[in-house]
């Protein structure tokens, strides 16, 4: 199992997942994503270069334990964005047998657009004067903001928002896929996972949607861990 952490975390900080998988019988590798933990890089790429990085990690596993290894890629949140973008990579070794997508986004441009629109809607419903609302909304112009973010990405990382797309990469993948999300996720809506699931070209795929009041974003694995240890 190669388990990939989310934003502002590290392999070391993801050790609780290693414990859970190890107790299930897996050997676990916990790499640091770019610009996290001990890895190089000064910018977060939201998984865009994960096809190269995770292919290299999988090949290192093959070199260490043999090419008959069977590897599953597990990712949480931004880590799920990484493993899903790696899923369609042509350089991924055949030892990678499946992917677990735990609450990923389907498209970075769509996710950011949704967040900006939510912010605009909250401002428009705020109990302040209409003139003040208009001024703030003008500053929060979704099209202009996303354009600025896109320009920054292109300048610093030579990538566009549109290219950061797990959904597009899953459409190229036939790897078995398990998608996990919680219905009460307010950061990355579960509809993002629905889009990923529908995009996947895998014959063997499952979608596990947890209903009810849990702990919001990225809570499925924590709730399972709490259940195991209670």
Structure description:
Helix content is 45%, strand content 12%. It has 230 residues and is α/β, with parallel strands linked by helices. The chain folds into 2 domains: 2-107 and 164-229, 3-Layer(aba) Sandwich (Rossmann fold), CATH 3.40.50; 108-163. It has a 5-stranded parallel β-sheet, covered by helices on one side. Helix 2 (50-65) crosses helix 3 (78-87) and helix 4 runs antiparallel to helix 6. The longest helix is centred in the middle third of the chain and has 17 residues, at 108-124. It starts with a strand and ends with a helix.
Topology:
Blueprint lengths: L1 E3 L10 H9 L26 H16 L5 E6 L1 H10 L8 E7 L5 H17 L5 H10 L2 H16 L8 H5 L6 E6 L7 H10 L5 E6 L9 H10 L1
Distance between the termini: 25 Å
Number of domains: 2
The top level CATH class name of the largest domain:
Alpha Beta
> What is the N-to-C succession of helices and strands?
EHHEHEHHHHEHEH
CATH topology value of the largest domain: Rossmann fold
Instruction: Count up the helices.
Output: 9
- The assigned structural class equals alpha/beta
Mean pLDDT figure: 86
Largest sheet, described in full? 5 strands, parallel
The CATH architecture of the largest domain: 3-Layer(aba) Sandwich
Please tell me how large the radius of gyration is: 19 Å
Q: Looking at the structure, what is the overall shape?
A: globular
* CATH superfamily (homologous) name of the largest domain: Alpha/Beta hydrolase fold, catalytic domain
Helix content: 40-55%
- Spatial order of strands in the largest sheet: 1-2-3-4-5
Low-confidence stretches: none
Oligomer: single chain
Beta content? 5-15%
Task: Please give the number of β-strands.
Answer: 5
């Amino acid at each position: 199992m190669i388990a990939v952490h989310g934003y502002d975390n590290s392999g070391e900080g993801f050790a609780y997942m290693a414990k859970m998988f190890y107790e299930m019988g897996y050997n676990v590798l916990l790499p640091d994503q770019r610009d996290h933990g001990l890895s190089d890089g000064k910018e977060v790429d939201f998984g865009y270069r994960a096809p190269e990085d995770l292919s290299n990690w999988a090949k290192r596993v093959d070199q260490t334990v043999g090419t008959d290894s069977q590897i599953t890629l597990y990712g949480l949140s931004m880590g799920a964005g990484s493993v899903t973008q790696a899923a369609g990579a042509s350089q991924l070794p055949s030892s990678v047998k499946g992917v677990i997508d735990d609450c990923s986004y389907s498209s970075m441009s769509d996710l950011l657009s949704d967040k900006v629109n939510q912010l605009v809607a909250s401002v428009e419903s705020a109990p302040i004067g209409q003139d003040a609302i208009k001024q703030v909304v003008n500053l929060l112009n979704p099209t202009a903001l996303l354009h600025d973010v896109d320009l920054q990405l292109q300048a610093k990382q030579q990538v566009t928002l549109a290219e950061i797309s797990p959904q597009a990469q899953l459409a190229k993948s036939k790897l078995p896929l398990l998608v996990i999300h919680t219905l009460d996720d307010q950061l990355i809506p579960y509809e993002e996972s629905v889009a990923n699931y529908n995009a996947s070209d895998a014959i063997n795929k499952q979608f596990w949607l947890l209903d009810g009041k849990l702990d919001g974003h990225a809570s499925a694995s924590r709730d399972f861990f709490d259940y195991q240890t209670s």
